[in-house]
ATP phosphoribosyltransferase
Amino acid sequence: MLRIAVPNKGSLSGPASAMLHEAGYQQRRESKELRIVDPENEVEFFYLRPRDIAIYVSSGRLDIGITGGDLLVDSGANAEEILPLGFARSTFRFAGKPGTAAGIEDLAGLTVATSYEGIVAKHLADHGVDASVVHLDGAVETAIELGVAEVIADVVETGTSLRNAGLEVFGEPIMKSEAIVIRRVGAEAEEPKVQQFLRRLQGVLVARTYVMMDYDCRVEQLEKAVALTPGLESPTVSPLHNEGWVAVRAMVPSKEAQRIMDDLYDIGARAILTTAIHACRL
Ligand SMILES: Nc1ncnc2c1ncn2[C@@H]1O[C@H](COP(=O)(O)OP(=O)(O)OP(=O)(O)O)[C@@H](O)[C@H]1O
Ligand SMILES: O=P(O)(O)OC[C@H]1O[C@H](OP(=O)(O)OP(=O)(O)O)[C@H](O)[C@@H]1O
Ligand SMILES: [Mg+2]
């Protein structure tokens, strides 16, 4: 049975469970459940603190985990990313009161408050900057106002939390992060159950980012049309009853669907339809 760690709280928890559900796995019904077995799919899910997931996975007792890229780096655990999941996207940045610092080189002798001590200490060391790091569990934006630190390093998504605290980011982003699937470094890469799990999640990612597009066009316009809708491998082209016309079917990125429909219309394609993809295996 495949043993998988899933975040039990925070920003990663809801989207991770939703994605697993979409991939056909049973998920817990109540937020207090710590583990559930999905016998049909031969998978056991363990609901753990996002911060602890890389540690469990690196121990080898759990096969796979879903966590944040930043949390993996912060943990220093012997685990690696095997699939990016496209949600919980954020950057990790330094911030302070306006005028405090312009870049990492200005941090020498200052104190940085963060919940991600592993990332920050390594980043400072890599840049040869001698600053102190104080660990706080959360709400680090308040640390400056309360005199615990001059600077913070934290997750930034919209920047609202920083603005509300009167703080500004400075310097280069320390890292980018998103939700990822991780495995222990050195684990058997070709394990069929793991591969099947990854294919299912990839299917969800594709179904979320692509739509199916169908249209009719004149044979003379086919080359131009196919250039607009190359599909993942190659589009399906079928003859129509009316001579000189073909029907074309291809997957296109959902974000570009409207523009592609306009462009197809302009070259004479008609009956242009898009339909949602509910699931897929590439
Ligand atoms: N506002 C946000 N937008 C996007 N991703 C976020 C946001 N806040 C945290 N994350 C991501 O979620 C992960 C942090 O998980 P965590 O469970 O600590 O979230 P949390 O919401 O801060 O919960 P907690 O209350 O335990 O601090 C990290 O990978 C981080 O990049
Ligand atoms: O840029 P924003 O969109 O404002 O998002 C970033 C904020 O979200 C997270 O906080 P969270 O709500 O998890 O609280 P915490 O600090 O207690 O972890 C993070 O620590 C930042 O404070
Ligand atoms: Mg948090």
User: Anything to note?
Assistant: Residues 211-276 form a domain with the Alpha-Beta Plaits fold (CATH 3.30.70.120). The chain has a mean pLDDT of 97.
